[in-house]
Amino acid sequence: MVRVGIVGASGYTGAELARLLAGHEKVTITAATSRQYAGKALAEVFPNLRKRIDITCENLTTDELVERADFFFTAVPHKTAMDVVPQLLAAGKKVVDLSADFRIHDSTTYEEWYQKHTCPELLDQAVYGLPELYREQIRQTRLTANPGCYPTSVILALAPLLREEMIDPATLIVDSKSGTSGAGRAASVGTLFCEVADGFKPYKVGGTHRHIPEIEQELSIAAGQPVTISFTPHLLPLSRGILSTIYAALTDKGRETDLQALYERVYREEPFVRLLPSGTPPATQHVRGSNYCDLSLQKDRRTNRLIVMSAIDNIVKGASGQAIQNMNLMNGFPETEGLLGAPFFP
Ligand SMILES: NC(=O)C1=CN([C@@H]2O[C@H](COP(=O)(O)OP(=O)(O)OC[C@H]3O[C@@H](n4cnc5c(N)ncnc54)[C@H](OP(=O)(O)O)[C@@H]3O)[C@@H](O)[C@H]2O)C=CC1
Ligand SMILES: CC(=O)N[C@@H](CCC(=O)OP(=O)(O)O)C(=O)O
């Protein structure tokens, strides 16, 4: 059994890591940190974990942490993660970081969208943790930067089209909608019931959302040229789920190609990508609680545009499920271990 520590166990992604790891055959959770809930059982903080998880939250220093586990998930806000990760790596541990701190390869871009990076020398060592794109590199690394939730939904939807020059990279419009768990568990006015219920609205409009550089980084690598996107996120009155609807102009090659067949070929062997028949829209309620990304392609019959739709559970494939998929790869476990629960519906 590999001993696993969850740094930030009292957040939504920490709780989801614990829920999924409770069914994992090859690891045991030996450390769970929280400052607010130190001394409290994790199953008291999250009663859904009663009789599944028997660990108490502790406020541990990094020196104490390294004694307690061999593999770590850092499920804390960006900035906090880069204060902890270097010491864990220096102690010979492997880490999947769920924050944004190691996702952007270029420190100047990171600093433009976030804040000063305190360990830019680690950026080269970190592998972007999207197994469908970087499986072999993830197997070899000690530091995986788990992708953001919106980026996961967008990159899986577009990378094969850009790689094969099927769409014009200058024409990408991404319309994404997320449930409120994406904002984390900390109290804030924007996620109060009355602010969110009975309606929905866009936020960070006009190229201001911090997931833009991360999405553009990966789409540019796929396209082999710089890609810029128009990205508008929306907040939905749901707890879980992201749906992205993406519009792109087809190239001549894209117009002539059977894109459904291309996606079938690319994703056939992927355990967590489900390509839907063309014309069947994905739905957040069909991936809820699971590590699946449901994708659907549809040509617009009246314009030259392709519409790509993508649905994930933001806390599973968008965070903790993908983090466990990465841990499995980094430890040589079967990639799907602990992750094969079917989505819960209704
Ligand atoms: N929610 C989502 O859908 C997704 C989240 N992420 C990323 O995952 C990470 C965790 O997100 P999420 O679980 O939603 O966040 P939450 O706000 O729900 O939880 C944050 C956790 O970090 C701990 N924490 C906060 N500040 C500090 C600090 N200064 N020092 C030590 N611990 C701290 C909190 O515990 P305490 O305050 O008790 O110490 C809590 O356990 C973030 O980086 C987020 O961006 C990524 C993809 C999707
Ligand atoms: C609904 C909501 O607020 N979502 C968050 C994204 C959460 C996430 O995946 O992002 P990071 O891991 O990059 O923090 C947001 O828009 O900032």
TrEMBL record:
Any one cellular-component term (Gene Ontology): cytoplasm
Location in or out of the cell: Cytoplasm
Pfam families: Semialdhyde_dh, Semialdhyde_dhC_1
GO-annotated molecular function: N-acetyl-gamma-glutamyl-phosphate reductase activity; NAD binding; NADP+ binding
Coiled coil: none
Main location: cytoplasm
Semialdehyde dehydrogenase NAD-binding domain: residues covered: 3-141
Any GO BP: L-arginine biosynthetic process
Catalytic activity: N-acetyl-L-glutamate 5-semialdehyde + phosphate + NADP(+) = N-acetyl-L-glutamyl 5-phosphate + NADPH + H(+)
Keywords carried by this UniProt record: Amino-acid biosynthesis, Arginine biosynthesis, Cytoplasm, NADP, Oxidoreductase
Top-level EC class: oxidoreductase
Pathway: Amino-acid biosynthesis; L-arginine biosynthesis; N(2)-acetyl-L-ornithine from L-glutamate: step 3/4
EC numbers, comma separated: 1.2.1.38
Ranges that cross the membrane: none
Catalytic site positions: C149
NCBIfam families: argC
UniProt function note: Catalyzes the NADPH-dependent reduction of N-acetyl-5-glutamyl phosphate to yield N-acetyl-L-glutamate 5-semialdehyde.
Family: Belongs to the NAGSA dehydrogenase family. Type 1 subfamily.
Protein name in the entry: N-acetyl-gamma-glutamyl-phosphate reductase
Native source species: Desulfobulbus oligotrophicus
Lineage summary: Bacteria, Pseudomonadati, Thermodesulfobacteriota, Desulfobulbia, Desulfobulbales
